[in-house]
């Protein structure tokens, strides 16, 4: 949804990690695909439009540490 149509109240949730990998939302263990789907749903419901970036970070397709270092 558009940011102006998003709720005025924040949506609060917790994420659990194991060895640096996300494994659960609000204490509910999920597969990586299910976790990404849930995060996309939460983002959409709150007017967040960066699902593609979130997916890249979760799937570790880009090493942002290396990408942000000067040449």
Average pLDDT number: 78
Radius of gyration: 14 Å
Strand content: 15-25%
Number of strands: 3
Largest sheet: 3 strands, antiparallel
Shape: elongated
Give me the secondary-structure category.
alpha+beta
Give the ordered list of helices and strands.
Answer: EEEHHH
Strand order of the largest sheet: 1-2-3
> What is the number of helices?
3
Name the helicity range: 25-40%
The parts where pLDDT drops under 50 for at least 5 residues are none
First-last Cα distance = 38 Å
Explain how this protein is built:
This protein is α+β, with helices and mostly antiparallel strands. The radius of gyration is 14 Å and the shape is elongated. A hairpin with a 2-residue loop joins strand 1 and strand 2. A three-stranded antiparallel beta sheet has the order 1-2-3, covered by helices on one side. 3% of the residues are buried.
What's the SSE blueprint?
Blueprint: E1 15-18, E2 21-25, E3 28-29, H1 32-45, H2 51-58, H3 64-67
Antiparallel strand pairs: 1-2, 2-3
Short description:
This protein has 71 residues and is of the alpha+beta class. It contains 3 helices and 3 strands; from the N terminus they run E-E-E-H-H-H. It has a 3-stranded antiparallel sheet, with helices on one face.
């Amino acid at each position: 949804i558009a940011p102006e149509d998003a709720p005025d109240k924040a949506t609060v949730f917790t994420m659990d990690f194991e060895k640096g990998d996300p494994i659960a939302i609000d204490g509910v263990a999920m597969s990586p695909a299910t976790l990404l789907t849930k995060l996309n749903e939460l983002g959409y419901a709150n007017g967040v439009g960066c699902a593609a970036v979130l997916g890249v970070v979760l799937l570790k397709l880009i090493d942002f540490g290396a990408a942000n270092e000067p040449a």
